[in-house]
């Protein structure tokens, strides 16, 4: 867990020099030094520093408003005469602009379009499921670990069976989360039930973790009368008020600005909860990504943005999606703290989301998490990804990089899981799913009245007329209409 | 997203004497509206009686927003430049009175404003979002069409954003050119799940806005910006609501029915006066809510007069007038004595110098009334 803290580079530099050593690596040339420090450390230092900094020179921050004074003091550099002379020299030359004082320099220097090193990815388990020496992570006990692993397996089997059901023509569409089971389940496990989910669409594991049953999944995919969405949306567009999971809509990233609004409401109500909003790598190119990030930052709305960067937006690779170092770097531009995590490392995702969620709720500010992963499945059942990416690449991620396999090694090595348990679990889940499909297939469709309700809170006259007219048409031409929709 | 001159004029009054003249004539016409209402003794104004003050349209909107925030602690008002009172002064005094947590500026991003508002409304709040000009609502089109309008339906009524109201000034203003003049209502009338409401006067604006805010469905509320300062009428101080999806016959007549909404009604009424001098009796209907719209009132009127004219500022092709014409032809075909007339904006971008040519002016309407009656 680390973050850029370039605004306060001088204070950090100073403190690093006097209290900590050695200094972390520098990323730019000398004038634009950024130091990377564990967040907690920086935070502690900042607190300590501001508490001893009372009475520091305010002159440079005369334009600061009351609420900004503390910040201003924290970032003040006037006590750092022993600092790097060059930096100090530049920092002493400041000028007021809207937004506060800014140092100026006689050097015409452009900020590089990319740092020398890519932002590293937080990881706990290596490919063989061994904790990496020195890694810090949340302890996960046996009960939690087994529940997480079982849920990941359940999600995988559900994907396999519904995918096959679509291939057999039993449902119209499906979209798997294969390869992203760790992000789904570890995120869900790290959150509080009260946290409100604004999903993209590749996060059914959150619902699964929260108790949405396999039957409920099947009801939606088959569009039965028991589907909470009343059969109105394509398969996988789940939603459940009871599980604090907003109904999925297909348009990309539209949920992100909404997340800021939902979170603002939680903030106004002083709730101990946050909003968790998902997007993919492709979604970050949408205007709504910008809108959501910027609104959450400006409104100080408690939103945990999670980007599943799986490398592919249908057939578009991330190299054709953006030229930045992925998504994590976009956070700072919005004034949003961010972290990059190995999305195939269950323990890393769990630990990062736990920490991020806690900060979001405590500080009432958004955080961005970029989880690096790979979309092992096709985009959806309407896509054949072998047309645009090599089979061996898919196979590599499916096997060698599988988040399930890696987590299982760790769980099994702890003595919490064994091969017999695995076989039994897979058999049970498979049976439950086949049963759920059978039940859903036998269920009635929602009745015709549900075509017209919920457009508004009440049926307006035009819909009354149209319903009446349609019913007459159905009487005359029964064969034109599906027989399993009760009229 | 406003340009300076328009803001300046809005803040400091009308610069050009020609505009001022047209403005004053609108004020005169609108006060006649009130008299028409009074003579029918059925307006809410009559019901409320006493404590009425003459106020302009932006002040009536401001009153409604004060009442909305006062009566519901879960209501919020926000948008670009809303904090200091708004570029049209509609939100004056609100942040002082209700605090910056409930009345606030947003970043300059329409899709963000509407997306944020949808999320806020989905949590059981009344989110009153302002889009500074209707011309700039299009970045939010996806949020309105694909999100707000379908929020309830797609979730099987588990979630809704019914507390959402989007306010946006629309229409000609004499000098607004392409991007401060448009009337985009027809785009939104093609979207089941939202309501579209347009008031014609200060009294109507207050009552209809309060209804829109309190309606359990998302509403797009277009405010006629030409009338913000120019239209003045007595507005009850109190909290009152006017029904949505109910049209109003604001002038009774027997020879032809005229249907319109918003600022255009004042032009249409002037045409009615002139037609009367030629012995033509015009019935004028304010539709008020465009979707879901009150077909019955229009149908009843056309069944009486046998003729229909629809007028709006938006371009004629694909305008909401076409929907009204088609619906009424379906319902009143045998009663119609002439083709339905449409007097609307031209199928050009909204022009600056040519605004008087583009607009559905009084005399264009008058000519259409005469030719329809003589058909």
Automatic annotation (TrEMBL), chain A:
GO terms for cellular component: mitochondrial matrix. It is found in: Mitochondrion matrix. InterPro entries: Alpha-ketoacid_DH_E1_comp, DH_E1, THDP-binding. Its EC number is 1.2.4.4. Signal peptide: none annotated. Pfam families: E1_dh (PF00676). This is 3-methyl-2-oxobutanoate dehydrogenase (2-methylpropanoyl-transferring). It comes from Penstemon smallii.
TrEMBL record, chain B:
GO terms for molecular function: branched-chain 2-oxo acid dehydrogenase activity. It is found in: Mitochondrion matrix. This is 3-methyl-2-oxobutanoate dehydrogenase (2-methylpropanoyl-transferring). GO terms for cellular component: mitochondrial matrix. Its EC number is 1.2.4.4. Its cofactor is thiamine diphosphate. Residues 55-230 form the Transketolase-like pyrimidine-binding domain. One of its GO terms (biological process) is branched-chain amino acid catabolic process. It is an enzyme of class 1 (oxidoreductase). Heterotetramer of alpha and beta chains. The keyword Mitochondrion applies. It catalyses: N(6)-[(R)-lipoyl]-L-lysyl-[protein] + 3-methyl-2-oxobutanoate + H(+) = N(6)-[(R)-S(8)-2-methylpropanoyldihydrolipoyl]-L-lysyl-[protein] + CO2. Keywords: Mitochondrion, Oxidoreductase, Transit peptide. The keyword Cytoplasm does not apply. Pfam families: Transket_pyr, Transketolase_C. It comes from the Eukaryota. SMART domains: Transket_pyr. CDD domains: TPP_PYR_E1-PDHc-beta_like. It comes from Penstemon smallii.
